[in-house]
Specification:
Length: 416
Amino acid sequence: MRLGRLLMASAAALGLAGVAAQAQEQVEVLHWWTSGGEAAALNVLKEDLQSKGIGWQDMPVAGGGGEQAMTVLRARVTAGNPPTAVQMLGFDIRDWAEQGVVADLSETAKAEGWGEVVPEALQFFSTYDGAWIAAPVNVHSTNWIWANKQIFDELGLAEPTTWDELIAALDKIQEAGHVALAHGGQAWQDATIFDAVVNATGGIEFYKAALVDLDPDALGSDTMKEVFDRMAKLRTYVDDNFSGRDWNLATAMVIEGQAGMQMMGDWAKGEFLNAGKQPGEDFLCFRHPGTQGTVTFNTDQFVLFQVGEEQRDAQIELAKSIMAPSFQSAFNVVKGSVPARTDVPGDAFDACGKKAIGDLAEANANGTLYGSLAHGHGAPASVKNAIYDVVTAHFNGEYDSATAVEELVNAVAAAQ
Ligand code: BGC
């Protein structure tokens, strides 16, 4: 027997032929799901693909909101070596589609009927020029507060429904010797709170005018000054070590009972669950006071880059797996988000998840569903980053509220 044949025969005997074939079917996935809860959710996807014989090459880039991941992506694409699939948010998806470097998923989307089950607000980001260019895995939202139930019970606190009740609760928690507000001083985290405070202070129409339509009158209004005053007030409830802290470490402060509340998107729930905590027993989830009935959303979508033909099958399999109803349920139960498809039953979700599903459907029906500015769904990255700078500078005391309003108007105008 010639050597080649001999090797093939022994490989087959050892079952290696199958392994070699599988090794070629591989996806390299760039993402920023590096916290405990996020990694647990990502595992659901990895395992799903592995069960279909597709290997996973992990390309994690830490940093909520995905700014650092997008920097790495730019470098990879510029070097002519894009990853197979990339976690992406909102306007970034459209920007990459415009560059003509992303794969067209229209054929799969049509065959699988994505258009009938994905809400239009999400499709705006999954399609470009009539073609499907992303597979949405979930819907998160930013107008949430996460609270330690034991602290609330001990202090006799009810879930606040107005700004005044929120402040009274924060005061009580602080007086009792806890950190009232767990927060990490990173621009995207400051902006996540800003999303909710703009909505709570001016209402969702004001949110839309200021952070989606970028109306200079709304941006420069007295209401916006009040927003900044409220941000300054919230700043008084964070601890001295907040600067630079990662969001999941802030969530851990609430989980461990060092802090009373965190204002964060519902990926925070993934951390509570990963720590073995139960909603209603160990922690509370409620909408930022004044925003019930509205949702500022962000949807994680996977964009497939144009890579060699040999990776095309694995890419399509990844997209199909992401969109499968059973996967959307299993993944989002762990991630803290809700399915991107409207036809996935909510049975497997906990109380916070069921509330999120109901709130999303209600906001979608009532026209009170808008993209999160902080997470790239309000305005393109240039504007988002300009707003980040102003919000963070103000949060750190560099501007008073009146100056912040002026800077906001100027920064948004310059960034467009
Ligand atoms: C993403 C979430 C992620 C969070 C923190 C957000 O921008 O949409 O999926 O969990 O950042 O990393």
